[in-house]
């Protein structure tokens, strides 16, 4: 209903045959780039004077030399920011946070450099990622402990013997596990869209990125953009990946954040310069890292039926007032699945629970997940309109941030709401009237 544009500035820049594209793919530029450029300039097969040929070759060489100096001569991390934080546009803190869930993955395959750059371009306050570890201990941005669903691992015959069965959170799982591959091997894979009904044109174009590369993308933005990394499956990772000197997954995770300057309590001067929320479904991990960093933490809450992966506590226990009072000593908020706040029945919303009100009473923020534009993810009450869903959660439920696959949609809604006044509900009403007017001409 409200189509998102795909400006050349990000999508085409990241996918066309260029040296920048080859960097994001994890490979070096090919000499074929020079030949293609020469053909477009009328050199080579189409002939040309010796002077034209020499001039064209000189320009091509100079161009490639400049591009190689900018890209291939160094890894994507650590990149210095193009602008000092003193002159960057600050993080907005006057309205609920727009959290780009795995980047702008409604458009581009999740957790890739392109998805995160697109999310920043679309107005994300925070870019969100899941952190796992490779066999050799490198931290990567990837959601699943197996590679099967969102990479081309099945095409790599050299890895055919790597399929394993492990226990993950109490259940056996079979597939190609991240922990059985080195970083170099993981970099040889290409990422694809998780959902078949989303745009497939970027499948196979981007590689898995590291935690450090993810950080570099945020720091290199032309405004202050926060990061929202998750300590993903820490019990499983600590079972299968070992670090020197008895270090744990959580130690490595926090160490990289501190290395790149992420520190400070929520809303402190340090935090506002480099905003971060650390998230996890594992309460013991959040408590453990509290001794290492004062950066704000978010306790994620799963479905009604899922116990915590490390303490085996039920949903009802971890959402009780006594537990919220306990965990508030370590976290600044909770991140529940949205259907546990307003349970659906036959795809219709039912009466909202009191979880948001109780969390706020304990001075905890609430950042629910996940908001998606497609009708298959929208409850009937929203009439296939994601803007209606945003209006409901921001104004009726009153949450403090939203994890969304479509950063651009949420940003547009909030911008339109701000332009129309302080009441986002009135902005939605105006948008709805405009939509009805447009549809009447169809």
UniProtKB/TrEMBL annotation:
Domain GP-PDE: 96-414
Domain of life: Eukaryota
PROSITE patterns for the chain: GP_PDE
Gene3D superfamilies in the record: Phosphatidylinositol (PI) phosphodiesterase
Enzyme class: hydrolase
Catalyzed reaction equations: a sn-glycero-3-phosphodiester + H2O = an alcohol + sn-glycerol 3-phosphate + H(+)
BP terms from Gene Ontology: glycerol metabolic process; lipid metabolic process
Pfam families, per the entry: GDPD
Record key words, sorted: Glycerol metabolism, Glycoprotein, Hydrolase, Signal
UniProt GO MF annotations: glycerophosphodiester phosphodiesterase activity
Enzyme Commission number(s): 3.1.4.46
Family: Belongs to the glycerophosphoryl diester phosphodiesterase family.
PANTHER family for this protein: GLYCEROPHOSPHODIESTER PHOSPHODIESTERASE GDPD5-RELATED, GLYCEROPHOSPHORYL DIESTER PHOSPHODIESTERASE
Record protein name field: glycerophosphodiester phosphodiesterase
Organism name: Musa acuminata subsp. malaccensis
């Amino acid at each position: 209903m409200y189509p998102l544009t795909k400006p050349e500035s990000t999508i085409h820049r990241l996918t066309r045959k260029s040296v920048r594209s080859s960097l994001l793919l994890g490979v070096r530029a090919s000499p074929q780039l020079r030949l293609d450029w020469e053909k477009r300039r009328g050199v080579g097969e189409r002939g040309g004077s010796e002077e034209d040929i020499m001039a064209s070759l000189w320009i091509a060489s100079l161009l490639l030399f400049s591009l190689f100096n900018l890209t291939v001569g160094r890894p994507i991390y650590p990149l210095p920011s193009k602008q000092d934080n003193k002159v960057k546009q600050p993080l907005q803190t006057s309205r609920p946070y727009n959290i780009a869930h795995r980047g702008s993955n409604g458009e581009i395959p999740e957790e890739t450099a392109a998805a995160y750059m697109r999310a920043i371009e679309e107005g994300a306050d925070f870019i969100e990622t899941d952190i796992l570890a490779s066999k050799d201990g490198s931290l990567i941005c990837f959601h699943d402990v197996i590679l099967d669903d969102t990479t081309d691992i099945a095409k790599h015959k050299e890895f055919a013997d790597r399929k394993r069965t492990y226990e993950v959170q109490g259940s056996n799982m079979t597939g190609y596990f991240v922990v059985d591959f080195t970083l170099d091997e993981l970099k040889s894979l290409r990422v694809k869209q998780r959902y078949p009904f989303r745009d497939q044109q970027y499948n196979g174009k981007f590689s898995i990125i590291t935690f450090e590369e993810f950080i570099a993308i945020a720091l290199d933005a032309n405004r202050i953009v926060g990061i929202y990394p998750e300590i993903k499956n820490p019990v499983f990772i600590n079972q299968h990946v070992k670090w020197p000197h008895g270090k744990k997954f959580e130690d490595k995770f926090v160490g990289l954040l501190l290395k790149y300057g992420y520190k400070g309590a929520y809303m402190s001067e340090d935090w506002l310069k480099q905003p971060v929320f650390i998230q996890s479904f594992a309460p013991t991990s959040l408590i453990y890292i509290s001794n290492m960093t004062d950066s704000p933490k978010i306790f994620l809450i799963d479905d009604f039926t899922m116990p915590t992966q490390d303490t085996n506590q039920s949903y009802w226990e971890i959402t009780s007032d006594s537990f919220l009072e306990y965990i508030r000593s370590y976290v600044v908020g909770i991140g529940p699945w949205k259907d546990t706040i307003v349970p659906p029945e036959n795809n219709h919303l039912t009466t909202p629970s009191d979880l948001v009100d109780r969390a706020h009473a304990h001075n905890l923020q609430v950042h629910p997940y996940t908001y998606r534009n497609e009708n298959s993810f929208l409850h009937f009450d929203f009439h296939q309109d994601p803007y209606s869903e945003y209006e409901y959660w921001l104004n009726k439920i009153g949450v403090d941030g939203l994890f969304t696959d479509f950063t651009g949609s949420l940003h547009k809604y909030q911008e339109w709401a701000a332009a129309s006044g302080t009441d986002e509900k009135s902005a939605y009403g105006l948008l709805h009237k405009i939509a009805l007017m447009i549809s009447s001409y169809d």
